[in-house]
């Protein structure tokens, strides 16, 4: 379907003031109506909130790797067309259902939705809303859930990282990588080796707090890490790339080291040679942050609360790669020669982007 924004050009505030809650109102939403095609911006009719639901005025929505995958039909979850992408957002509570007592109108919140954040408003279960502390701006807050939630879960819950341990982070200038670098250095007091595909990306990771870097675009990761830490290896590795980068990170582990499989941005899923686990008593473990929402909600919720708390305390500082307006649906992807994003998102997005080339 053609990518046409069909907003009526009215000020948002006007749209929000019309009629009573949920009655006859409309809001603009980004819609994926066809996979691998640009998103359409359409006016959608508001529906009344049910007793256990909350309506949020969405101010910023994070743009994640998973949003791009889902709009291409390449994500593990495949919502039915048409759908609105956007898994994380920040905003203010517009209206609460009669059974809701945990938030009230006007509260500043972040939310984690299945897919529906790239819209001017969304209706959500209050269980997946967290109050934003006063010193955390809405823009920064929107970028916390996926990347910082994942980083905190990987480092604290899965790898049990201890102060002073050496942490190797691959794709360290990606959204997840930068969050891992930030939490590992500035919260957990670990020594971080940031590995990335260019000198520019390594520089960005250093600015976030990494102690040393490896540009794996210029040579082998394992050898470079060995030069930095000696034959002992690193205590923890957090990998979002997969393929050979994962295997080299696995081979860089120290005795009783831990590697966390977070993603396969490079497109290749490596097999783990079990003998490597045995020889140095190392552990390889997986992490799927979103799955904790169903499987272990207290752990999931703690990642969000911790991220907000660390941000409020000034210990972490999310990196905003770029900010798009809702109607800006197409943008050049600047990394690794990826072609034009077919379904680029943007809902006044606090978009974290990996690539210094599109930083604002
Ligand atoms: N398991 C979970 O719960 C979870 C949560 C969040 C993210 N993830 C996954 O983690 C991965 C990274 O996510 P992100 O948000 O950090 O993404 P991002 O901000 O887009 O960063 C991706 C990074 O991956 C590296 N990369 C290597 N090969 C690539 C390729 N062929 N295309 C694109 N990037 C490539 C690039 O860094 P270099 O050039 O430095 O290699 C790039 O900066 C994704 O696979 C995502 O789905 C998983």
From TrEMBL:
GO molecular function, one term: oxidoreductase activity
InterPro entries per the UniProt record, alphabetical: ADH-like_C, ADH-like_N, ER, GroES-like_sf, NAD(P)-bd_dom_sf, Zn-ADH-like_protein
SMART domains: PKS_ER
Record region (Disordered): 327-360
Pfam families assigned: ADH_N (PF08240), ADH_zinc_N (PF00107)
Limits of the Enoyl reductase (ER) domain: 34-341
GO cellular-component term (any): mitochondrion
Regions that span the bilayer: none
Family, as annotated: Belongs to the zinc-containing alcohol dehydrogenase family. Quinone oxidoreductase subfamily.
Protein's name in the database: Quinone oxidoreductase-like protein 2 isoform X1
Gene: LOC113931931
